[in-house]
Amino acid sequence: MNKSQYSIEVKDIVKEFSSVRVLDQVTVGIKPGEIMGLIGENGAGKSTLIKIICGIYQATSGTIFLDEQPCLLKDYVSAKKLGIAIVPQEFNLINHLTVYENIFLGNEIHKGMFLNKALMREKASKQMTALNMSVDVNQLISKLSVAEKQMVEVSKALMLDAKILIFDEPTTTLTIKEVKILFDLMKKLQSKGVTMIFVSHKLHEIKTICDRVTILRDGKLIAIEEIDDINEEGIARQMIGRDFSQVFPPKIERIDGDLILEIENLNINNLLKNISFNLRRGEILGFAGLVGAGRTETMEAIMGLRKRDSGLIKINGKEITINKPQDAVKNKLGYISEDRQGKGIIQIFDIPKNMSLISIKKYKKGLFIDKKKEDNKAEDYIDKFNIVASSKKMELKYFSGGNQQKVYISKWMDTNPEILILDEPTRGIDVNAKREIYEFIHSLAESGISCILISSEMEEIIGLCSRVYVMKEGQISNCITGSAINEEEIMFNATGLKGKI
Question: Among the four 140, 253, 307, 408, which has the fewest Cβ within 10 Å?
């Protein structure tokens, strides 16, 4: 045979952490130039499998073949040398370095004894242009939006000229337009013979871009299907082992409810202009718009995470002062950030320590922490949110994205908020965990807690919210209600263009 059947094959892969088996005899072969989808619930083993392929983890047993030759991937550097690269779900970027410095980190170009910064800037700039991203490569990473950081990660991987390229939930922060750019790029790479693994919880994306799909459940290989032979419902059914349809709870209407939060003329120079809106008790209020429209910045300003130039905040009709996050917490505001890893959890902490990060005063006993009380409360949240963990003392870095998110929500619920802001709460979460979070948000509203939902998932905004404020370029474009909460109306108000983008 002149040409290998598979670019890469993992055969009988087993992985155990502290005697807990997270992958059990998994065998998958991926053909040259194929885009293979990889899907499964949180905790199914997807992240563990791709980390083994990248050399980040080593398998407990099993073999990896590249072009039908067995190989040892002892670390990520070894994998990179063999042409394997990953666009990670959680960013591996250094905030105090520039875009171009991050893109070439570990792969710097030298000119004699010195770095050839001019050439690195030029190549990075060309790469960002190819991605249709108007990002200054001299800009610090800390100044970029989440979507811009995602495209820097894509650029880093592409700069390696990888033969095997893994995309781990790459679209979770991207707009519809940016997803199309990414998919067009993947098709170009495919035409050049690059083999790709595409991990996503979005079933329609798997159907759109992949040739085949590998389905994992509880660490086991369930099926490898030709994409033309299976529909979204079939993929979901095999993922969770039972019939499933993503159903939103009935909407809660609070049209005549008491106003709990009023924002008047909030301004941040060159960022937000005259933001005014209100929130009723027990309401689920949506904030829609394209990435960069100012939704996250608005909520960060309300929470005291950003300095406001002007604007009033009223709770229960009374004007309050919020200059720092502690002020917001005292006034019963909670905020689930879209940046779970950067601003939400501490990966080297266990569940109890993460859960009590903000509410630690509740567990003080003299000069010490009442560990038993803290542990008991953590057990309550594990049960309430169905957090899958072999031990509550396990560090969160070993958890799936969905279970990390549930711990993050627990942290804020332990502050007893009356208003909870949820910014992209289902980012990187599988369909079943999404449904659990939808039901949780619904139960909060039923109990009288007011929720503000920011989401780039149009179906979430439409399915959960009774009112939706649409933002465009740092301003509120419109507030829509009732039957007007549909995709076309939201996109029109977000872009000013008729029809869908």
Answer: 307
